[in-house]
Design goal:
By secondary structure, this protein is α+β, with helices and mostly antiparallel strands. It contains 11 helices and 21 strands. It has 2 domains: about 180 residues, no CATH class; about 270 residues, Anthranilate synthase (4-Layer Sandwich), CATH 3.60.120.
Length: about 475
């Protein structure tokens, strides 16, 4: 990264140029200073960087060739309750005319964060997270394709002192550069666990059978049910190591780590909810799964079976139809292939349909998210009936698991993932989650094995407990 004095001078010049143009009171204005920089390699110090802040976020999207780390909070919009989408949208509109910025590249993040699967009263796993929080980070280091940017955001609550702001920026850069590489390369050991025993499997099968009864009675067509596995570890996880492993094993997945308070929610999700840019939107329908084969021939055989499996195709169609209907509400020229393809991950393969559309004018991002989420891939169909049954028979709060994670700016650009293949950690306790779709013909034993596959990305990060 450039030397501090050069960046401070650029920031000072930005303040002089931008604030001198505005004669009115600057109170309630968000400053956003962006500067293209030489590559600042933060990948080997993610753990130290994230945990140096009470509110921080790491995100890596192979589809967008975007990786960033966001530290501390300059401004946030936090909402709880059923009106979270509407209330957030209203506050974003209020802020829209109150930003002073110098961004040459408009496709850069401004707001970062996430929304829970549904509105809920948090349990211990999720007590550091609200139903919806989108925050503007104080510092954002962003790599987009071949370029790197440093972004500094500051919300003016009272008067503006240019000298104090420049000093604050300088000290922030100094503390950032003083954070060293992570030294701990070992993974903690599993000391104790729950959710993996034969007794837990029996309970899970009972829940599946309850769902199948409702499906047989035609109350619902599909429901997605989730399991939780709880681990007590020999120490805190190192996020640098964990994310490096996930990135190596699942290179075509979106990686994230959302640190808030004393908790970190992290994972590697294959499921894109929406990528929005240049008045276009892309979404992924992912549903229907099978394991990977031990050989190329076996893998191809399993793929062929998946592409012809009536149960999986039906499950996939619910998701695709939901997304198509949602896109019709805010998009034109919807495009997708009628026959799904197969997305292969290290441990599992999924049916995938990519959909795209042109966005209608004056479409708000929050309205898009409200229409799309939760999809039948993480909830079920019909949505309301499935959601009610999930609340009734699941044994845990989902929190951010299967919720929305991602970023956006006020140019209607953004990327949002469905936060599956994930876990939340607090101290040496970790809770991992996995779910799958139940439809007519689902077999409880097979569904259990599928969740085992989906838990593997997280559980394989740790050494087995010793006898």
């Amino acid at each position: 990264m450039e030397n501090i004095s050069g960046l401070v001078n650029s920031f000072s010049q930005f303040l002089s140029e931008k604030t001198s143009q505005r004669k009115e009171n600057l109170q309630g204005i968000l400053l956003s200073f962006s500067k293209e920089i030489h590559i600042f390699d933060f990948e080997n110090k993610i753990d130290s960087l994230l945990k140096s802040s009470g509110n921080s976020f790491y995100f890596s999207s192979p589809g967008n060739q975007l990786t960033f780390i966001a530290l501390d909070q300059a401004f946030n919009i936090t909402e709880n309750g059923q009106a979270r989408f509407i209330s957030t949208d209203k506050k974003l509109k209020e802020l829209a005319g109150k930003i002073i910025q110098n961004r040459s590249d408009k496709n850069l993040p401004l707001f970062i964060g996430g929304m829970k699967f549904t509105v809920e009263h948090s349990d211990d796993d999720w007590k550091d997270y609200n139903d919806s929080t989108w925050f503007v980070p104080e510092i954002l280091i962003c790599k987009v394709k071949e370029k790197s940017f440093l972004i500094y955001n500051y919300y003016i609550e009272q008067g503006l002192s240019k000298t104090r702001l420049v000093e604050k920026f300088s000290k922030k850069l100094e503390s950032l550069l003083n954070i060293t590489e992570d030294r701990n390369n070992s993974s903690p050991r599993i000391i104790n666990s729950s959710g993996l025993s034969p007794k837990d499997k029996k309970k899970w099968k009972q829940i599946i059978n309850q769902a199948l009864e409702k499906i047989n009675e035609d109350e619902i067509k599909k429901i997605v049910l989730a399991r939780k596995v709880e681990l007590i570890l020999s120490g805190e996880i190192n996020l640098t190591n964990s994310l490096y492993t996930l990135k190596s094993d699942y290179p075509n997945c979106c990686l994230f780590a959302y640190h808030k308070g004393n908790s970190t929610f992290f994972g590697a999700t294959p499921e894109l909810l929406a990528r929005i840019s240049n008045h276009k939107i892309e979404v992924d329908a992912i549903a229907g799964s099978v394991s990977r084969g031990a050989t190329d021939d076996e893998d191809q055989k399993l793929e062929t079976e998946l592409l012809n499996n009536k149960k999986d195709l039906e499950e996939h169609k619910y998701v695709r139809d939901h997304l198509t209907n949602a896109l019709n509400n805010f998009g034109n020229n919807i495009s997708f292939n009628n026959t799904p393809s197969v997305k292969k991950l290290k441990n599992i393969q999924h049916l995938l349909t990519k959909l795209s559309a042109d966005l209608k004018d004056d479409t708000s991002l929050m309205n898009i998210l409200r229409e799309l989420h939760p999809t039948p891939a993480v909830c079920g169909f019909p949505k309301d009936a499935a959601l009610n049954l999930i609340k009734k028979i699941e044994n845990q709060k989902r929190g951010l698991y299967s919720g929305i994670i991602g970023w956006f700016n006020l140019n209607n650009e953004g990327e949002f993932a469905v936060s599956i293949r994930s876990a939340v950690t607090r101290g040496n306790k970790l809770s991992a989650f996995a779910g799958n779709g139940i439809v007519e013909g689902s077999e409880p034993d097979n569904e259990f094995e599928e969740t085992e596959m989906k838990l593997k990305p997280i559980l394989s990060l740790f050494n087995e407990k010793k006898d």
